Amino acid sequence: MTGQHDSSASAGPEHGHGHGHGHGHGHELEGKRGIKGLVSKVGHALAPHSHDSADKTDAALEGSSRGLRVLAVSFGVLLVTAAVQAVIVVMSGSVALLGDTLHNVADALTAVPLAIAFSLGRRAATRRFTYGYGRAEDLAGIAIVLIIAASAGLAGYEAITRLFDPRDMRAVGWVAAAAVVGFLGNEWVARYRIGVGRQIGSAALVADGLHARTDGFTSLAVLIGAGGAALGFPLADPIVGLLITVAICFVLRDAAREIYHRLMDAVDPALVDEAEAILGGVEGVERVGSVRLRWIGHALHAEVDILVSHHLSLVDAHAVAVAAEHRLIHDLPKLRAATVHTDPHGPAGADHHAPLTSHR
């Protein structure tokens, strides 16, 4: 027995899976004796795994479907919001409201790259893209961050321009009403996108929700500017616009950090702690080695090392790996696939990876 074994689980038709077990089983590492026990163990080791096309893939696909629904609904809400504002732009001649209207249209259009990303993420893995197309969400997230940055730049430019060239505003009450409509529409979309994005684990959808929130702030700037114009203080609009630009920059920072963490394979350390605790509770695991987690789209993948007794047979070590994998897939939220590597724990002083020392 070499003491090393990989047990890979991929819940999806795009990945092969080299072992299996049903849901209503138990692994007895010791105590099964005779031909019946040996046949049972070997049969278990060779059986196809029940997770190949089960819950986790269904959950990931449902996450993509929910993401597409969110984008479709929010796209419609923002277009209606922009249409209402456009009518009032014609009535009032407000340049600030025109900018806010165009901003809302741009925000609605950010749904396009995200929709493409969610659609791509549903495609099966290939021999070139062996992990599938989930990373398309991160690329869409980069596009959204760039759009937020452009929004901040445009808002700042318009505010500075209006600071040096104040303009009169007609139909101030209607402009204020349009600003309220813009804020409410964007805030509703922001809450919807951010809420579902966090539920399905999509950093790009969360970033898009944050972008919608920046547009809501811009609408509030129009409202306060309209109030200032009504009170005979036209400079209120550009001054508040500058403050809103600063607020947008803070939102930009949060969105950029979210996408950066995904691109760098960062995860919440609490997830690592949870995975270690799950593995440590598996019968036969004497120690937990390294735990590596990464997001691919809105699905979590794991690669873990566990140490088992060096007295175990290959079949028994495999059974421990299967049990560990099974527990991880069921107990770690949003985990779609796990690769479990077993190492022998002992004998004292043995180096089971000596041939690999020069390669590490």
TrEMBL record:
Topology in membrane: Multi-pass membrane protein
Biased composition range(s): Polar residues: 1-10
Localization terms from the record: Membrane
Keyword field contains Transmembrane: yes
Taxonomy, superkingdom: Bacteria
Residue ranges of every copy of the Cation efflux protein transmembrane domain listed in the record: 72-264
TM region positions: 70-95, 101-118, 139-160, 172-190, 216-233, 239-256
Ranges of residues in domain Cation efflux protein cytoplasmic: 268-345
UniProt KW keywords: Membrane, Transmembrane, Transmembrane helix, Transport
InterPro entries with a match to the protein in the record: Cation_efflux, Cation_efflux_CTD, Cation_efflux_TM, CDF_Transporter
Region described as Disordered: 1-30, 340-360
Family note: Belongs to the cation diffusion facilitator (CDF) transporter (TC 2.A.4) family.
Protein name: Cation diffusion facilitator family transporter
